[in-house]
Structures are given as C-alpha cells and as structure tokens.
Amino acid sequence: MSEMTPYIHDLAVKLWNYHHTNHPLTKADAILVLCSHDLRVAERGAELFLEGWAPLLIFSGGLGVITRFMWTEPEADMFARIAQDMGVPAEHILIENRSSNTGENVQFTRQLLAERKLEIDKFIVVQKPYMERRSFATFRKVWPEKQVIVTSPQDSFDDYLSTYSNPELTPDDVISIMVGDLQRIKIYPEKGFQIPQEIPDDVWQAYEALVEAGYGRHLASV
C-alpha cells in the first residue's frame, strides 16, 4: 500500500482515540498482561509492577492469529522474560501460555488462579493501545464479577508507529489490525464474546472509509 496520506492518518487517529478507555490507574490485586506481537506491552506491565500498582504480574498468551506465523515460543514466556530482565522477581510472575485470543486470555487466567487458589478481586489489564476497549469489553463479559481497569503503552499514534517494537508489522498492518478490532467491537456482543460498546457515528464512518481504502485485511468473517 502507498505511503500514508494525511486523510488516512486522520481516519486512523480517530480509531486510535476511540480504542482507548482512558481509565485512571488505581492500585489492584494483580496486573494481567494480555500478550501479543507487541513486546512494548510486556515493558508496560513490568513498569506498572515495579511502580507498585499491584503485587502480582500475570502474563497470558500462547500463539495467536498473528504470532503463530512469527514465533515458535509462546507470547507469555517471551513477555515474562522481558519483565524479569527489567527486575521483576520470578516469584511475583504467573504465566498462562495456552490462550490464542482475548476471551481465552481471561478464561485460562481464571482457571490458573483457581488452580493456585488465588483470589483476585481487582485487575489492571495491560494491552496494546488500540485493543484497550475490546479487552475491557471481553473481560467484562467473561468475568463480570471482577473489577477491571485497562491501560497500555502511553504513546501517541505517531509515536507508536515510529517506535514500534516489531519490525515485521508495517504502519499499514497496524491500521488494518485497528480496523479489524473495531469491527469486532461491533459484531462480537451478539456472538456472546463481549459486552456492547457504543460506537459514535464519526468513528464508524472512519472505519468504513478505511475499509474502502483497503485496510480490511484483518476483518473477521461474518
């Protein structure tokens, strides 16, 4: 695809802003990092632990739709190693490395905590910036009795693209993934995967324009 035009950039920023929940941070019982192709999310989770926001750091992720074509090691194992290299003690880390999507992240983490007889009431969920809202909607559907706030690496859209930690994905790839996540926010509630989220008209119009412009490579089949 050709170089990003100002028009495409502005449409993408509209989706980027919508995907953020803008939850203020408060102390929690555990930090749950939803792993992916974005290693910066591991760093954000480790930073929050080291700043004292929660006493337990959980990494959840096996190999997903994107990473199964990039890596052979489970996402959670890679993320946990990054956290330990940053100074997080291994005894404060739990690893769930079987899940392949966001719903499984929550389900399998719930099972892991039950097996360990750990009662966690409040989570800080850490995710990619453009998956905050979908992660919130999924968590609230799968585990509604728990408190959850969602955060991500604290970057602007432009900074995120310029410092992006995985060179195998281009800015066009990131925009296409954002488009696919917005479509899932729209269609997944009726499939039982998420709670509904309001999508403003201007955000949906930006989505449709990006699909029309060729950024629909990560759309789910309907």
UniProtKB/TrEMBL annotation:
Residues 29-147 form the DUF218 domain. This is DUF218 domain-containing protein. GO terms for cellular component: plasma membrane. Transmembrane segments: none annotated. InterPro entries: Cell_Envelope_Assoc (IPR051599), DUF218 (IPR003848), Rossmann-like_a/b/a_fold (IPR014729). It holds the Pfam family DUF218. It comes from Spirosoma linguale (strain ATCC 33905 / DSM 74 / LMG 10896 / Claus 1). It comes from the Bacteria.
